[in-house]
Design a protein that fits this description.
About 55% of the residues lie in helices and about 5% in strands. The chain has 26 helices and 6 strands. A 3-stranded antiparallel sheet has the order 1-2-3. The protein has a 3-stranded antiparallel sheet with strand order 4-5-6.
Length: about 550
């Protein structure tokens, strides 16, 4: 239990602007396990078009199409779309939609405006389904089909380009997972040449990929490829790499501008530098950093830190990553390791926020390095990002930096790779309870409103270990709000266990709507009972 449990609850002087900022950036728990699905809205518009076409004379005799249309649910979304793979394949590969049909039913104010994109949306959705299922070869094949067999169409070139950029990123990551690093780099270069890519993400990722390619081998292939860039079909360009012809969509860029972009890029300059270095000198062996004390001797304050007992596992993971090819020569990372160990040896781990933040900010690179480890070592480092962010969160909470804490909590819950991993279900439940209670405590010192109450109720439903503390916090907030507002809030309160996602609970009291995990798998009746036996209910509703 953390020391902030014992802190007095100061409910005054919190600026409403901070709450507003948080409300604008709020991300529900449900996003923590969202499948990869770029066209989340468009897939339901595709369903609407399927339903509509099934009523038209053009498809009255197409029994296969009519049967598949009947099987569709009332709504397609990122969660249930995977159950309709057969339908998606039929739409992508077999369904014919003529230009005449598209023109006949087109309306700029109706879902039929997206009828021409049905083949693309179905193909892209299949690629995303396979990507989420880690079937990377199948995903790559369908991304390629979604780009060049059934490309997106529309009036907005920018929107179409963003679609291509996203697909190229996913293809790159898929090739990386397959350890085909040359292809992973090439698809990132497609976005680099596009010059409309996602900020610095492509440049930063290329830098991380440098550690996984042999510069002396890749450089001559790249230089030969650059010379072959030329106009392809339509708006696409094409080139030859290592004997294979490839195409990409560069938006408005020409072959000459694409060549110039690559040859002036930091990636190309670093590649040349690394190739020269490798030829002139053998690479130094990775530096193995070891702590002065044995790992098992490190301790941190369990009154401040959750996962206090795991700190030695965390440091072991940090050391393993520090000896990978990508980080063994990274001076910043090496310095971070030394500083973390120094803090542990000096019992000042509560001052290690900068070091922990460094690990959090390098999560993508660390993820890439984890993939290169043997299976045993992968298990040893799988929680490195979660521990770093949770330890940082504990330091923030101890310093009463509540607005910052809420941001960190949402990051743990919503960003892939930061969730706690364990084969022990109880350990996962405990971690999620700790996070929910920490969030409830944060709202107590931050959100003096019904929004704070509804989030505290979400914590109360799940956190048996913190029931007394949460009841006390809710009563403090309720007393500030007053009886009229609290009674109105509780009277309007509704709960729902989401049908197709029974590990999630929706709490609604207009205008507030939040989603929280259903850690214990409670039924509607059990959830209602938990709420109606709470201190706030007994005081204000009985």
């Amino acid at each position: 239990m953390s020391s902030f449990l014992a802190l007095s609850l100061n409910l005054k002087g919190i600026k409403s602007t901070l709450l507003f900022c948080f409300l604008c950036s709020y991300i529900s728990w449900s996003q923590s396990e969202e499948p990869n699905m770029y066209h989340n809205h468009a897939i339901d518009m595709m369903r609407e078009n399927i339903d509509f076409l099934a009523t038209t004379e053009e498809y009255a005799d197409n029994t296969t199409f009519l049967e598949l249309a009947k099987q569709l649910p009332k709504k397609l979304d990122r969660y249930n779309i995977k159950n309709y793979e057969t339908t998606l394949k039929y739409i992508a590969d077999e369904l014919k939609v003529s230009e005449a049909t598209i023109k006949k039913y087109y309306s700029p104010f109706h879902f039929t405006k997206e009828m021409a994109n049905m083949h693309h949306v179905a193909t892209h959705a299949l690629a995303d389904i396979y990507f989420t299922a880690e079937k990377y070869k199948e995903a790559i094949a369908f991304y390629d089909k979604a780009m060049f067999t059934h490309p997106p169409v529309g009036t907005s070139g920018t929107t179409i380009n963003k679609d291509f950029l996203r697909m190229e990123l996913d293809v790159s990551e898929a090739y990386f997972e397959l350890k085909d690093y040359d292809m992973a780099v090439l698809h990132l270069l497609h976005n680099l040449m596009n010059q409309q890519s996602f900020g610095d993400h492509v440049t930063d990722t290329l830098k991380e990929y440098e550690a996984f390619i042999d510069a002396t081998v890749f450089l001559p292939k790249l230089e030969a490829m650059v010379k072959t860039i030329q106009k392809g079909e339509g708006y696409n360009l094409k080139y030859v790499f290592n004997g294979k012809t490839m195409q990409f969509s560069p938006f408005i860029e020409s072959p000459s501008s694409c060549r110039a972009t690559i040859l002036s890029s930091d990636f190309y300059k670093n590649l040349k530098k690394n190739a020269v270095s490798k030829k002139t000198a053998s690479a130094p062996s990775p530096k193995v950093i070891k702590p002065i004390q044995k790992l098992a001797s490190f301790k941190i304050d369990d009154q401040i830190f959750h996962h206090a007992k795991a700190v030695n596992d965390f440091i072991k993971a940090v050391l393993i990553i520090g000896n990978t090819d990508a980080f063994s020569k990274n001076k910043a990372y090496q310095a971070t390791i030394i500083n973390l160990i120094t803090h542990l040896e000096n019992n000042t781990f509560n001052e290690a926020k900068n070091e922990l933040e460094y690990i959090v900010n390098n999560a993508f690179s660390i993820k890439a390095s984890i993939k290169t480890l043997e299976e045993k070592q992968q298990k040893e480092v799988e929680n490195i990002r979660h521990f770093a962010l949770h330890y940082k969160l504990d330091i923030i909470m101890a310093n009463k930096e509540y607005a910052m804490a809420l941001g960190a909590i949402q990051y743990v819950k919503s960003v892939e790779g930061f969730a706690f991993v364990s084969e022990n279900k109880k350990e996962i439940e405990t971690d999620r309870e700790d996070l929910l209670f920490t969030e409830a405590f944060t709202y107590n010192g931050f959100a003096i409103s019904e929004f704070g109450l509804i989030n505290m109720l979400g914590a109360l439903i799940n956190c048996d270990n913190y029931e007394t503390e949460i009841n006390t916090m809710m009563m403090d907030v309720a007393n500030v709000l007053g009886k009229e507002r609290v009674v109105k809030f509780l009277t309007q309160l509704k709960t729902k266990v989401v049908n197709d996602k029974d590990d999630e609970i929706t709490l609604t009291s207009a205008p507030f709507n939040v989603k929280v995990p259903n850690i214990k798998g409670l039924s509607e009746y059990q959830i209602t009972n938990k709420i109606q036996t709470s201190a706030i209910w007994k005081v204000f509703m009985e």
